[in-house]
Amino acid sequence: MTQKTPNSNTSRIAITGAGSGLGRELALRYAREGWRVAVTDLQSGRAKRVAGEVNAAGGDAIAQTLDTRKPEDFDALLDRIREEWGGLDVFVNNAGVSNAGSVVDTPLEDWDWMLDINLMGAVRGARAALPMLRESRGHLVNIASFAAIASAPGMSAYNVAKAGVLSLSESIRGEEYGHGVGVTVACPAFFATNLLDSFRGTNDRQRAMVEKLMRRARVSAEDVANDIYDAVRENRFLVISHRDSRWQYRFKRLSPERFFTAVRKATRSFTG
């Protein structure tokens, strides 16, 4: 399928959770190319602040408060985009939360919270945006995680939610192929962000380990945003920004039992 390349003067993107972290970096990356950027976030103040940064960087922003648990918020966003821009070229399901804990230890309410935001939020976003993306032969981007591939112990609810986002992306890719809609799913490993602001967990060692891995990461949010921008432009499906993770992805496909053993050893210190 040949992906339509939007005119930079009229290109339009909407990003959930764009008030900080990767969402903000994506907003600024597209702003530097002169795109119109809908900056959405659960916190209206953050959305407005990043919208100002988008305008300063050369883009043209609108700010919208959006809770990914509310279908009506997505409807309001897409209605506004239709009215003000006439359509949409790229939609990014980025908003998410984090947690850690085993299947047994993670409370059911935390499972509901995780799946409602990280997985069903992406479902709601896709359902709202795809009709408009069909019109423009545009592109859907879902932000998953390398957790969707590694499924490391001690992060069960997060793993399941992100694996669901990966599977959702694969499904939509096939379903929308005939409509000319491209799909990209990003599966980054750890990088410095504010994801832990929303963290829920049952084990302090797990949070400490995640913080350590974020601090030591050689890949930044800006790097991941650049990779996603290139993937959308080239209509590539899977984005794995970390070099080590790309090797691990191949390792798991070639030798899943050896991969399991390696993951188990690497996480033994905080899973018991």
TrEMBL record:
Pfam families xref list: adh_short
Gene Ontology molecular functions: 1-deoxy-D-xylulose-5-phosphate reductoisomerase activity; isomerase activity
Cellular component per GO, a single term: membrane
Keyword Oxidoreductase among record annotations: yes
Record has Oxidoreductase as a keyword: yes
InterPro entries: NAD(P)-bd_dom_sf, Sc_DH/Rdtase_CS, SDR_fam
SUPFAM superfamilies according to UniProt: NAD(P)-binding Rossmann-fold domains
UniProt-listed Enzyme Commission number(s): 1.1.1.267
Keyword terms: Oxidoreductase
UniProt cross-references to NCBIfam families, sorted A to Z: PRK05650.1
Family: Belongs to the short-chain dehydrogenases/reductases (SDR) family.
Protein name per Swiss-Prot or TrEMBL: 1-deoxy-D-xylulose-5-phosphate reductoisomerase protein
